[in-house]
Write a structure and sequence with these properties.
Number of domains: 2
Strand order of the largest sheet: 11-10-9-8-7-6-5-12
Shape: globular
Strand content: 15-25%
Oligomer: single chain
Bound molecules: magnesium ion
Helix content: 40-55%
Largest sheet: 8 strands, parallel
Distance between the termini: 31 Å
Radius of gyration: 20 Å
Length: 390
Amino acid sequence: MKITNVECYALLIPDFDVDACSSAQDNLVVKITTDTGLYGIGETDTNPWGVKAIIDAPGTHAIGRGFKELLIGKDPRNVEGLWYELNEKTMMTSRRGLGICAIGAVDMALWDLCGKIYEQPTWKLLGGSTKEYIYPYASLLPEGDNLKDYSDSLVDKVTKANKLGYKAAKLEICIKGPYSHNNIQIEDDAEFAKMVHRCRQAVGNEMTLMADVAYAWRDWKSALRALQMVKEDNLYFIETPIRIEDLEGMAKLSHLSPVRIATGEMLQTRFECMETIDKGKVDVIQPDVGRVGGLTEAKRVTQYAEDKGVLVVPHCWKSAIGIAASVHLSAVSPTCTFIEFLPKELAESQLRKELVLEEHEVVNGAIALPTKPGLGIEINQNKLEEYLVK
Ligand SMILES: [Mg+2]
């Protein structure tokens, strides 16, 4: 069996906003086809044209090879072997950044394809599971360009997520710092605390709540002061409180914080995740399957996290393709407690809603261990063409 084609689809919704903070507006989908007619699908979360260029470009050097040319003619069942080959033979151009995202999308597609070849769900090929259910947390991005609207929108969304049956939800409270939403900049952390209190009051004590502040604080002491204000609200974790490079600050914060420290959405390869776990002493590592280097690499991260007693909650802000990859990763990762999940009902992006015809269903806040071959999703070929940037 041989790989006969590797196609890259750079997708974009027509009414995209370059200032928006949702990366569900675009996508890079990879489709790997074989001489049997079977194909696999993967995606990654970065600039779609950049990754498409890296995959399509011809090689010019022994360790600056082209992805597509390396894959054509190869046996797709040799997934880990191909991972090493891609990683080693592109290291001059691709050892981090877009190149690792390219490996991520290709590797995701290969695992989907292998599941279809062997007629098994991908998690079985990855080694098997002890779980019956995977728990998605509803990731909630509020709307509004002033504090009042933003806060009201978040309370409204968390109330809806609770009514939809989600056991957990994440509050995006990104109101200061380099990645604040909709140009809001509120210096006073009491406002952050008020938003957390309002959401906790709205849903009661049973629902698990976590918060993402998107690198809001400049140093660990500011973060600690703010987190002490929400001690009573029982947050499960705080995501990206300070910048990812400040591992010393992260370790100090983690030691004293009343709330678990989570980070990892931007990290690439197991090496960056291992360093963040070892030096940053984080409580929760959040690899994004498509960005970290695919299911092959994400599984290595989860194994390391398990060995170190660290929780895994994969990041995912794309379509049901990436969500499916997170589902299979969670299945094989004992310390993965939740996966990030954009509920269709609360998401604004058409790509999140329409790109996949059949996806894993959330019933009573849980996703049953998948039984269909591969990632267990069906891409909508018409939508792939409709949102394609020509
Ligand atoms: Mg985030």
